[in-house]
Amino acid sequence: MNRGKTFIISGPSGVGKGSVLRVLLEKRKHIYVSVSATTRPQRPGEEDGVHYHFLDVETFRQRIARDEFLEYAEYVGNFYGTPKEFVDTAMEAGRDVILEIDVQGALQVAAKRPEAILIFIAPPSWEELERRLTLRGTDSPEKIQKRLLRAKVECQTADAYHYFVINDTLENAAAELDAIMTAEHCKSRERMEIINGN
Q1: Which helix (H) or strand (E) holds 193?
Q2: For a surface tag, which of 4, 60, 67, 99 has the fewest beta carbons within 10 Å of its beta carbon?
Q3: Using CA atoms, how far apart are residues 195 and 123, in angstroms rounded to an integer?
Q4: C-alpha dist (Å) from residue 96 to 34, 43, 70, 159, 173
Q5: What are the Cα distances from residue 40, in Å, to 35, 58, 72, 76, 152?
Q6: Residues 6 or more apart in contact with residue 102 via CB below 8 angstroms
Q7: CA-CA distance, 116 to 113, in Å (whole number)?
Q8: What CA–CA distances, in Å, run from 159 to 11, 43, 118, 163?
């Protein structure tokens, strides 16, 4: 059994990363979607190990010291990170892993694991991204403008990624992600290992 691969998905807030992944997972049910760890309080309805791995600050810091995260960051007074343990276990079992993380985290992982495949998801236009952010109804017009500015900065880092997917429709974007994952498993080295029985 070949080891699974790590696929990192990044993109601006509101671009629809989670929705695209839900469509993809209808076809690729064997994928492991990484669950982040956080020190923020658990909210009503959230399950430990499903929505996040909830840790206290001291435990999180101890895990940082033991190098147990692929990436981590502090955001608005709370820590967030990707535990290595669950990612490695899934990959050893032959499952592909998807990490949906921001640009900063993606570049941290790529520095530690250069074999990871980085995929940037972008909107078809800035007008469409603004429309999607507005339709969510969760942000003020001022906050939406801040998100748009941040999105433009994030898109400037997209050339550090291996693939660039434009989410014009969920079906098209999910089909492109599916094609990327298939192509990555058709690399000559991996196929030669299969036919040589290694």
Answers
A1: helix 188-195
A2: 67
A3: 40
A4: 10, 29, 16, 23, 18
A5: 14, 13, 13, 10, 28
A6: 10, 73, 154
A7: 6
A8: 13, 36, 10, 9
- pTM, two decimal places: 0.88
For residue 7, the 8-state DSSP code is E
pLDDT-based confidence at residue 198 (cuts at 50, 70, 90)? low
Q: What is the DSSP string of 124-165?
A: S-HHHHHHHHHHHT-S-HHHHHHHHHHHHHHHTTGGGSSEEE
What's the whole-number mean pLDDT along residues 92-100? 96
pLDDT digits (tens, 9 = 90+) for 167-187: 999 999 999 999 999 999 998
Sequence length of the chain is 198
Q: Is 109 helix (H, G, I), strand (E, B) or coil?
A: helix
